[in-house]
Amino acid sequence: MFRLYPLLLSGLFFALPLRAAKYFAFTPKALQAYEYATSLRFGEAYTLMAQMKLEDPNNLIVHHIDNYIDFFTLYIQEDEADYRRLKKNRDLRLDKIKAGDRNSPYYLFVQADIRLQWALARLRFEDYLGAFTEVSKAYKLLKENEELFPDFMPNKKDLGILHAMVGTIPDSYKWGVKLLGGLDGTIAQGRKEVEQVLAYAQKNDFIFKEETAVLYAYLLLHLDNNEEEAWQAVAGSSLRPRENPMHCFVMANIAMRTGRNGKAIQLLEQRQTGKAYFPFPYLDYMLGLAKLRRLDKDANPYFQRFVTHYQGRNFIKEAYQKMAWQELINGNPTGYRGYMQACLEKGYSIAGGDKNALQEAEHGVAPDISLLKARLLFDGGYFQKGYQALAARRPDSFAYPEGQLEYYYRMGRLLHGLKRYDSALEYYRFTIEKGADSPYFYACNAALQMGLIYESQGDPARARAAFERCLNLSPEEYRTGLHQKAKSGLVRLQDSAG
Questions:
Q1: Band of the pLDDT at 15, cuts 50, 70, 90?
Q2: What is the pTM of this model?
Q3: CATH code for 393-498?
Q4: For residues 424 and 449, what is the distance between their CA atoms, to the nearest angstrom?
């Protein structure tokens, strides 16, 4: 009889319900939930995820999708109360994921991806130490995962972006770079890795195909300084700007940065809206800005809608400044003063654009209408019209030194846009000569633009000198962004030199 005990015990063991293993799988329901989450259709995503947690409670991929929703919520609305509330979810999700299958390539990747999303969220709320710490931990997880699963494409997507950006971090954040011990790379290396992922996605079903296309486009635009390729990366992708507000944002943003202002207006006007989508007020700001850059007369309702519905801190002062500019262009100086008073009283002066708007409001003097139109038309890619707006003016027609400095700068930018490079370089030199000690950003960006021209002409020595000149100038406005672009230029020159 005693010989039967082992058989009875084993039978009892197998008859009892086992504690099922936790795993990661993009099931059909998970794929649809991811699609809803990245389309800002959060209600439908939550419904599917609730079903997954009941029907498939051991599939931990649901926590990754959940984190996308928190990330988009924070990045779009920029609400401090949401940030404090949702931070608690991060640790809970990571703990749940750590209970998953360690032999899955998603085990380390999902932890790293959640940390990278929170790094971006922390940057949004000026937690720079927390952001660098998240990136450092994410990189270590990705490198470990790479050793275990070298051909796992989602991992390569994240590593490619980190490798591309690490060498371009401005010197003002050197303390943060020290936290990224072991993280190195170049723009060329990162670009190659992301291109490998895109090539894989063309031949295989790849859940992160559209996400990778977006990352690649921004790598080309911001790090590789290749505007045309950046636009083609999104224009030739499977992004759906009519149905997906995030896709609309990306394509309109890149269109506005590559001289396709009219296309941006078309994309923003044709997007779907409604209660099914999480509110995205910044799209109204973008549409107002694009219309203002075309010198349309109906930009202000979009800015007004933005300031009414936006919960964050950034862009508020800028929005009131832009409404003031609209009034000035429309010939209403009283309206200009009213909106600039609102600029003084509302919003925060944290971001560069808001600081610039506040300075204008405090200065109490309306911008010169010719310079303003030239600025807006240049930003919209209407270079010939912008040039015509300034061509009749002379530097000595401006009664104050800042006006003369801006004239040289704007002429340089417009001639640059018109590909009249020799003339553009001459005006950039005037700008640096007269504005190197100025608190304005004109000289710093003039040096950067000179570097970009020389780089495009295959003159690395002059390009390097111009990029270094940019880094040696420290304007009160836009310094971090300009220095990051100059650093990117130096990295590209180093890459091309081998």
A1: very low
A2: 0.91
A3: 1.25.40.10
A4: 9
